[in-house]
Amino acid sequence: MNQVCIKLVNPDLRRRRLLAGLALGSLLSRFARSAEELRVACLDWALTETMLALGSRPIAIVAASDWNRFVVEPPLPPGVADLGLQQDINLELLATLKPDLILTSPFITGLDSVLQRIAPTLQFSIFQKSAQPLAQPRMLARDLGKRLGKAVQATRYLESAEQQLDAYRTQVAALRPLPVLLVSFIDGRHVRVYGGEGLFQNVFDRIGITNAWTGDSNYWGFTTVGIERLATDRNLQLIALEPVPPDALPTLRYSPLWSRLPFVKAGQVTTLPPVLMFGALPSALRFARLVVPRLKGQPA
Amino acid sequence: MSATLRSLGPLWMTLALGLLAAGVVTLLLAGPVMHLLAQPMDPESYDVGALTLMYSTLPRLVIALLCGAALGASGAILQQALRNPLASPTTLGIDAGARLALALATLFVPALFGIGRDMVSLLGSVITTLGVFALVRHRGFSALSLVLAGLVVSLYCGALSSILILAKDHYLASLLIWGSGSLSQQSWQPSLALAWRLSLVAIPAALLLRPLSLLDLGDESVRSLGLSPARLRMFAVGIAVVLSALVTSAVGVIGFIGLVAPVLARLTGARRFGHRLLLSTAIGSLLLLLTDATLQTLAGATSEFIPTGAVTAVLGSPLILLLLPRLHAALRPPTPMAIRALTAIPLRRSLRVVIPLLAVLLVAAMAVGRDPTGAWQLLPLEQWHEIMTWRMPRVVAALASGALLGIAGVVLQRLTGNEMASPEVLGVSAGSILAVALSLFVFAGIGPISENLAAVLGGACVLAAIVWLGRGAAFAPERVLLAGIALNALIDALVGVLSATGDPRALVLLAWMAGSMSGTTTTASATIAAVAMVFIPVSLLSARWLAILSLGGSQAQALGLRLARARLLLLLLGAVLTGAATLVVGPLTFVGLMAPHIGLALGIRLPLPSLLCAALSGATIMALADWLARTVAFPLQLPTGLVAAMVGAPFLMFLLSRRSTSL
Question: Has this prediction a pTM greater than 0.95?
């Protein structure tokens, strides 16, 4: 079977791939010793935050100027070049920076052949459904560690992450919190509700929080609904991710449908600083750390 | 269809629509109301069913009635004042302006919403309306020109909105939802606020009833009563704009109700303007109620969020196609473009102006850039080779596609005799967008090859549709243009639905639509250059036909031209040129509209020099846009197609406004 496959591949292409693989392999083994010198350009935020968590510093990333608005932590070290919009990457700049390796995600598959003219590329899938919560982000940290010569750091990071998550799980179990409705306000009439298989749901599952949203979610783990769909007589708490549009809550004050909601009446509405929805393990940890102190226990 | 409608008569038509709406509403309300009757509401507990009925379902039905009524009235007034059966808040670009204004306010001055969403959207509507009127005032407000100008302004506003979304994608969902009008309600407050605002506008609208009816008798009779027709029109259009802006500020853009309602009212045979206005208001409100109630009833069946405004647009835009045969009288072929100075000098003169300009620009576009720290620099020689592998394909592709679009513009404008015709109105690029969107959303994975393939297939399908729709009328240009407009609107609405779900793939689609040239490979750029090499000479061969066609259809036939064949071939040529360029710079082919006007401004009238000049100026504009896209916001790189539209639109306005004095 293998042989058949190889015969079908254009020999030239196969050779080139092999050469690229060899080159990459030698690069990686060389830089396994001096990993600091490997110049990595990172075209995805989830990969970037995982790199930073492993103590590896990219030379350039996409949309660096928006990092503090959407990802916040781990902080972006100074001197990381900004490659511009993810939808329109500044290739000239990327080429001038002469990276040794480019990390990509399936969102920019279209550019792969172009990027390979600059440096070898490595694609990691960020978003994939899995049976176990957070399996994909964990695998990402492990793989990335291996590729960047940070295997030891990756193992350590994963252990520490598990410990933190276990600690949160114990806290949550002791608190027995109300089910959580996690939303982003789009305007005064619509919200995005998180559920399904997204990063946030994964964290909920891992640390034992019940999601109050039982409706459908799309592939990415959220759904857009009119706020009337949140009407319920169940006792739960609502956590809204910032930023909340300035006119959303004032508008809702006029709505008996909203203001008479048991959880609104009881003041069980809080906000949460921004967390990257399409993030990896660092975002998951940030989310858990921010969400746990905001949880409200069940009434005795 | 029209015969049936006429035999129904206005009263029965409204009654039938009302009954249908009542039926669906009953279906929607039966369950909750029965529940409420069985278990009266307890003020202490939170009764989900009862509260949802009281504060969501019922206000939503009321706001649907109000918005529909306002849009129906707005459309009827616009159609009467402009004597144009195609005028409506959607087709004139009024909606798009309000949407852009709301987008700008959301991103930059969100505090504005505290005081007045109305004012923001009204301001946007007024500015775009003025823009559209400025574009067409030399064309005597002809039906087609007005709608074309509306389309151009809509596209421009849409381009600006998408650059905002691309740069600040966090607010994507909110902007897209406003753009496709969701009627979702949680209290009576919005409907009450809209009701009293509308009632304030209703008073001046009622006062306009009699003077506006007089317009049916012609401007002379209005003047004989001591009124100024121009001022009357302006006042009426103002009221219509306010009506639709109020709706947009309350719920977002509800497409095409303002076109469909007055057209149905007219089709039922209502002869007097007063009747038509009343009827159109009633039909508009019932139509929106029917659509929204149906959507609410079906909402359980789908998990995706579908805004009502997008649905009305999807259902309403094909109406333009149905209207085609009926619009004959209204669409008297536009007067052929003024061809005054039939002199032969301009060719050399234009070449003398454009070629050196192009050469200078080319060198500048290649050599001047920013270094990694962002400082301006003249490219050092030792970096020349490395940077050129990235810059050269972009510049070449920009030049080639600009030239192709310029030529496509001249061919289409000459063919249709309308100076507002631009390549995108053919709908070929819209077909490409839809195909790319489908391949992104339905067949998950997409690479550059399948993306291009999808774009080609989509464009080809639209082209086939255009040919099929136009075959009966010997490819009469105005029909083709209207069909293109309908397709554009339909596709715009469908893309709106796809994007409003908040799916991250929408950003990929937006980037494609914005004309990002980041990944232009050497192969792609060589291909488009080859297409240009082949098709530019081919297009020059069409100069003779274009010259003859400028004389008008019957004249051309008298001169021995086989009209249908010539038009078909020219259409195909325009479509191929547009399609090829779309693959490189995306569907924002604004350059195709602009380039021919540069030739006109230089005093070039003959087809052959016009074609040459448009090719050169199209290439120049695209190269300039690409240079700006690379350098202006460094290290941010902007999509070239968008930059071309942003640079081009004000320039076009300038050219058109100058023409009024020189011609």
Answer: no
Residue A23 pLDDT exceeds 70? no
Ordered DSSP codes for A73-112: -SPPPTTPEE---TTS--HHHHHHT--SEEEE-GGGGGGH
Report the distance separating Cα B281 and Cα B68, nearest Å.
7
Closest chain B C-alpha to A244 CA, distance in angstroms:
11
Chosen for mutation from B637, B640, B642 (greatest number of chain A CBs closer than 10 Å) is: B637
Report which secondary-structure segment, H or E, holds B86. none
Residues B114, A254: C-beta atoms closer than 8 Å: no
Tell me whether 0.90 is exceeded by the ipTM.
Answer: no
CB nearest to B182's CB, from A86, A216, A226: A226
DSSP 3-state of A148: coil
Cα B175 to Cα B108: distance, rounded to the nearest angstrom:
13
**Terminal CA-to-CA distance of chain B, rounded, Å?**
44
pLDDT tier, B663 (very low <50, low <70, confident <90, very high otherwise): very low
3-state DSSP assignment of residue B376 = strand
pLDDT tens sequence across A63-92: 888 888 888 888 999 889 999 888 788 888
- The residue type found at A229 is R
Q: B15 CB contacts (<8 Å, ≥6 apart)? A: none
The nearest alpha carbon in chain A to B371 belongs to: A93
> Which of B184, B186, B305 is nearest residue A258 as measured by Cβ atoms?
B186
CA distance B600 to A296: 71
Q: Which helix (H) or strand (E) holds B349?
A: helix B346-367
Dist. CA A281–CA B449, nearest whole Å: 33
CA-closest candidate to residue A209, choices A261, A251, A147, A165: A165
